[in-house]
Amino acid sequence: MSKLKIGYVPLAKGNWREPRVETVREQALHLLQNLNAGYEVVGGGELITTDAEALALLEHFEKEHVDVLVFHYITFALGSIAPLMTERSRLPVVFWSMPEPAMDGGRISSNSFCAVNMNAHALWKLKAHYIHVHAGMETAADKLRGAVSPVAAIKRLRRTKLGMVGSRAPGFYTSGANELLLRRQLGVEIDNITLYELTEIAEKMPKEKVDEAVEWLKDSSCGICGPTGEELRKGAALYLAFLEVKQKFSVDVFSVKCWPEFAQYYGIGVCAILGMLNDRSILSGCEGDVYGTVTMIMENELTGGLPFFCDLISIDGAQNTGITWHCGAAPKGLRRPGADAKLRQHSIIDGGDKKGLTNEFPLKPGRVTLARVSETRDNDGYRMLITTGAAVETEQLLRGNPLRVQFDAPLPELARTLIYEGFEHHFAVIHGEIVEELHNICRLLDIEPVIVK
Predict the structure, then answer these.
(1) How far apart are CA 2 and CA 354, in angstroms?
(2) CA–CA separation, 17 vs 216, rounded Å?
């Protein structure tokens, strides 16, 4: 997960200083310092009450290369500070307001929410990007994580080089991507890598390295049912080739044209190899789907978990259940506890059971979020589909990697959104509920959220 530097700006009105305010500042600083082991907090050592103090703190932030500003309105504060620091830094902003202290008939002692209301108006007019959290100290940690983790995800996107191995699968317009729009708005760079180069590296891989990688391949599953020794060696060599290409071209993730050339010319399908890469968080999307892979990056950064690249193949189950599935590229880390996993020959290629290599098992249960980054109809920006559900105990319903999901949204409504709003047929499923975090990414990147609930 990405490192993140948080610039903490505890704000108060100069004539509202009192011991309570200093106590809140100290508690908030401690809370922020313990949000995440990968986050570092800069600033927060003293209250900021004037423009001069704000500018001095901003100079410190610039030297420390801060990634996000957290404006904490402990009390009401001057309306000039947030616009000043935001405009000069051009950083994303989190506004933190707190519930009003108990009222006993005396003067107002905080006015925190009103202060954020006033300052949000200014940033809205300036077209700055901000997120709002309203929480007392006892509930603030989770909400603040939900506000700053999207900044970490965006930082990771802007440092990501995606290795495009081949192109999109034939006829899969749903896997296409506008390379320069992606670079401009989301920051992801694409590096094109030919299938020929990858397989050439695999075929020249030294025998002793392949011998070792065969054992890694076997360890990625629970057994072998069908693939020949030669297919296992081809898969192991290809896995090593992916690792070599990753280092050679300094790529972080892959989007792979997994058919038809691999099976036709190299002799195997590559599903199980992509699963091994995903198990190492070298995120790899199938069928040349760039935006599917980008969605996987977001989900992985927000949760630390392993995403599942999949289709939604059934919306017909009882109790509002659908089935997500793909051929056999899920990482072993998503296997349902107690379920068998087998390296098998592909169930579809050449009519099925002709060529390896898939890793087949049902996925584990739990709360899940399904999402998809998608271009707008006019190809001038992005939108994001987001929905949630409960993954339930799933058997090996069919070959590959199935997962039955009881969706929170009515499935007919989800289906209408997918069909009539023109969304692609690939999704990324992650264990955990991250609707608000994904929505916050949309806020910060000018992505249109399409939340089905």
Answers:
(1) 42
(2) 62
Structure tokens that stand for 296 in this block? 């996987």
The reported pLDDT for the residue numbered 16 is 66
- On average, the pLDDT of the chain sits at 96
Digit-coded pLDDT (tens) for 380-438: 999 999 999 999 999 999 999 999 999 999 999 999 999 999 999 999 999 999 999 99
- How far apart (Å, rounded) are the C-alpha atoms in residues 445 and 158? 11
- What phi and psi, each to the nearest 5 degrees, are found at residue 88? -75, -30
For 185-252, the DSSP string reads: II--EEEEE-HHHHHHHHHT--HHHHHHHHHHHHHTSS-EES--HHHHHHHHHHHHHHHHHHHHHT-S
pLDDT tens across 151-173, in order? 999 999 999 999 999 999 999 99
Tell me the domains of the chain and their CATH numbers.
Answer: 4-157 (3.40.50.10940), 161-451 (3.40.275.10)
| Closest listed residue to residue 325, CA positions, set 339, 309, 341 | 309
Residues 319-333: tens digit of each pLDDT: 999 999 999 999 999
Q: What is the pLDDT of residues 330-388, one digit of tens each?
A: 999 999 999 999 999 999 999 999 998 999 999 999 999 999 999 999 999 999 999 99
Distance CA 197, CA 175 (A): 22
Using the Cα atoms of residue 28, residue 445, residue 186 and residue 391 in order, give the sign of their dihedral.
Answer: positive
Token duo for residue 194: 């030919």
Count helices and strands (H / E) in the chain: 14, 19
Of 185, 220, 235, 189, nearest to 345 (Cα)?
Answer: 235
Contact 298, 157 (CB under 8 A): yes
